[in-house]
Amino acid sequence: MAVILSEWVPVLKNFSSKLAKTAGLLALTMLLASCASGPTAPTSAPKTQVELGVVTDTPQHYLQQASQAEGDQQQRWLLLAARAYTEQGDLADAAQILAGLESRLSQAPQLQAEYRLLLSEQAMAAQKRAEALALLDWPLNWPLSNAQWQHYYRLKGELYQASAAPLPAAASFYTLSRYQPKDERQQSLDSLWQSLGQADEAQLRTAIGESQDPLWRGWLELAWLAKHFAIQPSTLVGELARWQRDNPQHPAARNLPADLQLALTVQPYRPQTVAVLLPLSGRVAAQAKSIQDGILARALEQETGRQVRFYDTGKLDAADAYQQAVTDGAEFIIGPLLKANVDKVMAIADPQLPMLMLNQPGIEFNNEDNHFFFALSPEEEAMHVAERLYQDGRTMPLVLAPASSVGRRMAREFDATWQTLTDKPVEVHYFDRTDTMQAAVRSALLVDASLAQIADVKQAFGNKTIADFRSRRDIDAIFVVADVNEVRLLKPFIDVNIAVFAEPPQLYTSSRANARSDSRQARGELDGLYVSDMPWLLGNTDNRQRIHTLWPDRSDSQLRLFAMGHDSWALIDRLAQMRVFSGYRVQGLSGQLAVTDKGVLSRQLGWAQYRRGKLRAEQ
Predict the structure, then answer these.
(1) What is the CA radius of gyration of the chain?
(2) Which positions ≥6 away from 193 have C-beta within 8 Å?
(3) Angle at 473 between CA 467 and CA 476, to 5 degrees
(4) What angle do CA 555, 561, 564 make, to 5 degrees?
């Protein structure tokens, strides 16, 4: 046995029990045992070069081959064993092989690349996306196998996709397709198109101007055309015909993406009369009035000549208001607002009359193509926060929430979303009142348990024993479900209950804690906290300043409803195409908007962080 193999005895012996279970490998087990006592005569390495990145056999087979080889060839077999374990989902055994290679790996580019690819997959599985991407940073002129480049670009595409970087993701899937046989490219091209759908028009225009690759530029132009002309199907048909003439060899020229083909056949809504059902009197009249102002503001901006009629569901039964709107010739209906009224109207609604309801129904209804739902729900914000933590590479979040109806709903939605993303549940701690907040924080961070241990030590060894409490180190993020006053009380409790030598977890919260209107000194107490909200409420945007001039006394909650009304009117012409074209997104006041195939509007919110007393929006 060659000396180099003796270095691998601890690794290979660990697998010997598994190898013994495989018929014909008992001899290898005995060989590994003999290696432990000292080197024997070297075994000559196989002459055939092993291709990395392609698994055609079991991990045990590759380990057996490694035991009979030496040098770079042995490392190739070990990397193939790690690849085989990875592909069958056994990351722990793959990690053990990689750990054994760390200090002795050859500098040959193929071996270095395969090692980093496998480590990157380990990091991605652990949600460490920044680390996974950093591992893929190597010279693009390395002479790697075709299979290795496929692994490389597939990994980069998936990592960028999970990190909400649509253009780099699309570019990676595009390059991946260039390394694949024609009959294997479709999945990569579908992922490419899906990623381009996440980019906005401005990003696409910039990328088009920078592109030197005709095929890649063709994809960018196609995505831009699809977004820009989505509400003008007749114009889009002509633009696509021109694009096909200009790009006759493009893979999409003869076979347009399926959702784009469908969007071409769908006619946009062009109503002349729009009815709006809102409770303009009664207990929620102030909220309804904010939505009404948003609708009227956008209607005046667009100047489409459409008529709008408002029906007060505070005075009229919602079903009666709907019937009256139909009798009056409404061709599109916005509302109602309250969940109970949505249920009433849905029970009698004409499936052919398009409606954008301003809440989700409380009971199940048929999924009608012309019915849409737009809600500013706290659950949606909690889902958005969970997705953000996942994109940031957080792996162990904790939730602190009030034991109220809203607090429990948001905590449940965060947990459900996190489990969908990671298959792991989230630890949730509730507080009943402001005077129980500190106790909830200490319990969540396991500070009480640490202090109890210190008390036991002092009792055993005397009160002069010096010890500092320890807070838990397994959590890396805390989602604080609270309004701004609760957050202002909670954050100091969290700060002082993190041990001085521990890495503090990152704090995240929702729009309920946007303290933009507070003094700078008060906001300084929240430094480091990440906040999600409608983008226009996270900075001094032009829209924010203009609307503040018109309505200086509006609260942030009223301004969010104003944005909802504003976007509801702005989307009328776009909803039909947005439903069938998954890549069609609109930047509204309430966020970046998309429509699911069930007609539900989803929002991508903005993010900002408190720094030196200012809420600074991310770009």
Answers:
(1) 30
(2) 170, 219, 223, 257, 583
(3) 145
(4) 145
Q: Are 25 and 52 in contact (CB under 8 A)?
A: no
Take residue 560 and report the two structure tokens written for it: 């969010």
Give dist(CA 370, CA 352) in Å, integer. 6
285 Cβ partners below 8 Å, 6+ apart? 279, 314
Q: Contact, 272 vs 306, CB < 8 A?
A: yes
pLDDT digits (tens, 9 = 90+) for 496-549: 666 544 578 899 999 988 866 555 555 667 888 999 999 988 876 666 677 777
Do 466 and 612 fall within a single domain? yes
Residue 563 has pLDDT above 70, yes or no: yes
Domain hosting residue 74, numbered range: 3-192
What is the average per-residue pLDDT within 85-94?
Answer: 94
The answer, yes or no, to whether the previous bond of 42 is cis (omega within 30 of 0) is no
CA distance 416 to 399: 12
Q: What is the dihedral of CA 147, 150, 151, 153, to 10 degrees?
A: 160
Please, which pLDDT band fits residue 309 given cuts at 50, 70 and 90?
Answer: very high
Same structural domain, 243 and 184: no
Pair (80, 154) in one structural domain? yes
Alpha-carbon gap, residue 291 to 282, rounded angstroms: 15
In a domain, 301, yes or no: no
In single-letter form, the type of residue at position 401 comes to: A
Percent of residues in the chain assigned helix, strand, coil, to nearest 5 = 55, 10, 35
409 part of a folded domain: yes
DSSP strand pairing (530-533 vs 506-509): parallel
3-state DSSP assignment of residue 505:
coil
| CA 384 to each of CA 99, 288, 558, 601, 602: distance values in angstroms, whole numbers, following the listed order | 36, 25, 21, 13, 10
Please report how many Cα atoms fall inside a 13 Å half-sphere around the Cα of residue 591, on the Cβ side. 22
Signed CA dihedral, 385, 386, 389, 394: sign only? positive
**Range with lowest mean pLDDT among 151-155, 444-448, 526-530, 579-583:** 444-448
Q: What is the pLDDT of residue 470?
A: 38
Tokens of 312: 């007060």
Read off the DSSP letter of residue 600: B
Cα–Cα distance for residue pair 98/597, rounded to 1 Å: 44
Per the structure, the count of domains in the chain is 3
387/380 Cα distance (integer angstroms): 11
Strand partners, 310: 276
pLDDT at 36 over 80: no
